[in-house]
Design brief:
By secondary structure, this protein is α/β, with parallel strands linked by helices. The chain has 5 helices and 10 strands. The strands form 2 sheets. The chain has a 7-stranded mixed sheet. Strands 2-3-10 form a 3-stranded antiparallel sheet. Strand 4 and strand 5 form a beta hairpin. Helix 4 runs antiparallel to helix 5. The N terminus is likely disordered.
Length: 200
């Protein structure tokens, strides 16, 4: 697997009272006709609240294919939540008949696990190691896999659905037509949005 951390080159910069903003197109066209899977998890600070997962699948032309949001048990561990989201997303993509896939997420610990060639350390909680093994089994079913870390804003649609997932009583899937809550975000991924300029 390969990981590309390069972002789309900055095209426009404006100075505002709230700082410097850049106009960034966060949609990076996949290679080899791959479909793109964006995943995210939301883990509330209190175990009294459910955690949530969000998944968005688009084709190589940024056409929305399916999305998924669901509540899951809150283990108080963001890595567990994110890996659960990823595994659900991979299963969803396989059911869509996807062979070539590019995966995008913004939570660096999980991205690092996916791109590392090392065995998952025994120091990791058993729940994490189990999810990583399940993830590996699912990844092996694709003909091609590329993993990319993106900024939080570039993963906005999946993050939004993860928050929605926390509020649901059961899982929900959208097919061919995106939910209204992420419709604008999906468009902005392609045409561009103003984002704070990261520090040096």
């Amino acid at each position: 697997m390969a990981m590309n951390l390069n972002h789309v080159p900055v095209q426009n910069i404006v100075h505002t009272e709230n700082g410097v903003l850049v106009h960034c197109r966060t949609w990076i066209p996949p290679s080899d006709d791959s479909w793109k899977l964006s995943f995210a998890g939301c883990t509330p600070g209190s175990a009294l609240f459910k955690a949530g997962v969000g998944i968005v699948v688009r084709d190589q032309n940024a056409i929305f294919k399916t999305a998924f949001a669901a509540p899951i048990r809150n283990f108080g561990n963001q890595t567990v939540t994110e890996l659960t989201a990823l595994n659900l997303g991979l299963d969803l993509a396989l059911k869509q008949g996807v062979d070539f896939i590019e995966i995008e997420g913004d939570y660096s610990p999980v991205i690092n696990i996916l791109t590392s060639e090392d065995v998952v350390p025994s120091s990791f909680p058993s729940s994490v190691r189990t999810l990583v093994v399940e993830c590996g089994d699912l990844l092996n079913k694709f003909r091609s896999v590329l993993v990319r870390q993106v900024h939080f804003q570039a993963n906005e649609s999946a993050n939004t659905l993860a928050v929605v997932g926390c509020e649901l009583d059961e899982s929900f899937q959208w097919i061919n037509k995106p939910p209204q809550v992420i419709a604008e975000s999906l468009i902005l991924d392609v045409i561009g949005r103003w984002m704070p300029l990261a520090g040096p």
